[in-house]
Amino acid sequence: MKNNQKSKANRHILQITYAVVAVFAGLILYFGYFLQVKSENVINNSYNARLDSFSDRVLRGEIQSRDGRVLAVTSIDGEGNEIRQYPYDSLFAHVVGYSSKGKTGLEALANFYLLTSHVNLVEQVVNELSSVKNQGDNVITTLDVDLQKMAYDALGSRKGAVIVMEPDTGKVLAMVSKPDYSPNTLLADWDHLVAEENTSGQLLNRATQGLYPPGSTFKMVTALEYMRENPGNYKDYTFDCDGYYEVGDYVIKCYHQTAHGHQNFVSAFANSCNGAFANIGLSLNLNPLKTTSEELLFNKELPLAIAYSKSSYVMDAGADTWQVLQTSIGQGQTQITPMHNAMITAAIANGGVLMKPYFIDHVENAGGDVIKKFMPESYGPLMTAEESANMTELMRTVVTEGTGSAVRTDSYTVAGKTGSAEFDKDKETHAWFVGFAPAENPRVVVSVIVEEGGSGGKAAAPIARSLFDLYFSR
Known about the structure:
The protein is of the alpha+beta class and 474 residues long. The chain has 16 helices and 19 strands.
C-alpha cells in the first residue's frame, strides 16, 4: 500500500515537473517569437511614449521616394533647433504625414526606423563623446514622385482621392487626398485646421479614411455573386431598360434616366445599368451576398499598416425590397474607402489573390547600406482565378463598349468600372473609377473618387487615364 502511494506521489511530482517545464519552454519560445516578430510593432506603437526619447540621441532620418528624392528631412537652424521639412510641401501631405502634433502617415509608420541609427560603431562613439546626435536611418518608400504629382495635378482643386498601386506586389506608388494642408506650416495652421467651423477636413486622408457609397463600382460585387449563383448560365441573363425600373411603389433610375434598351449580363455591366442590377439583386440569396461581400473585406479589418476606416455592408437576409434594390447598385448604407476599392480591383487583376499594400521598400543607414528590406506579402485569395478572369472580361467591356470609354486607347488595354454614387439628393453624385492595365497582364491599378464630380466616366476616368498614360510612357 505504501509503495502504491509513493508511486502515485512520484507520478504527481513528475506531472507537475513536466507542466512547469512545458510552461517555461512555452515562455522561451514566445520570448523568441516576440523578439523576432512582434517587438518592432510594440516599440513603434503610437501609444509608446518612450519611443520619442530616442530623439534625445538620434537625429530623425529622411523619408525618400522610391528613386531617392527627399520627401521629409530634419535640418538644424542657426540656434540649434531641429526643424522637420517637407521639400514637396503638400504634395505628399497625407501619405508621408507629419511628426509634430503627434504623428501620421509614414512619419508614424516608420517612426522606429527614423529614430534608429546604424552609423558605424566608431562614428557612434565619437558622436557620443562629442554630445552629437547620431544620424537616424533613412526610409526609402515605394512612392513615385512623378505619379504622385500627376495624380495631384489631375485631381486639381476638387475634393477626393487617388491611389496607384501594383497588383502583383502591393506596392503603393501614389496616394493623394484633397483638400490637403502644408506640413511645413502645420504648427502655425493647426488651430484653423482643427477649428469646429472648418468643415473641409484637410487632415483627413480620404484615400484610406474617407467612407463613400461605392455606387456602381459595387456592381463588381453584385456581378460576382450572381455568377456564383448561376455558374453555367449567367450570360443568359437579359433585361429591357427604359431608363427606370419599377417594383411596386419603388423606382430605380438609371443615371440621367438613360434608356439602355435590351441588355444582357455583359452589356448591363458595361453600361452600368441600374435597372438590370437592381433586378439581379432581387434574384440573389442575401446570405451568400453578404458572405461574398465580407470575403471581399467589407466589415473586415484590412491588411493595411496606416490609419484607415473599415468599409461597411449592413444588409442581412430579410431586408426589405428597397434596401435590396439600393444595396445591389452600391447605394443604401453600404460604404467603402478608395483604398479598399483599389484592393478589390487589385485582387481581380492578380488572379483573385490580394497582395498586402505596403509603403516602405527598405531602410538604409546614413551611408546607404540596406538595414532592412520589405518584401511583397500575400493576404490570400478573395476569389478564384476563374472568377478573376470572368470579372476581368466584364471590366474590359466597360472600357471597350461602355461607360469607361475615357480610358480607351490603342497604346494599352484597360479593364475598369465607373460609378456615380448618390449621397445627397440636392448635390451632384460622387464620381468613381477603378481599373487596371494592361488588362491581359496587369501591372498597375488605379482608384479614383471625385467628390460631387458627377459621372464617373467623365470626371474620374480621365484622371485614371492620365496616370495610365504616364505609367506606360516610361
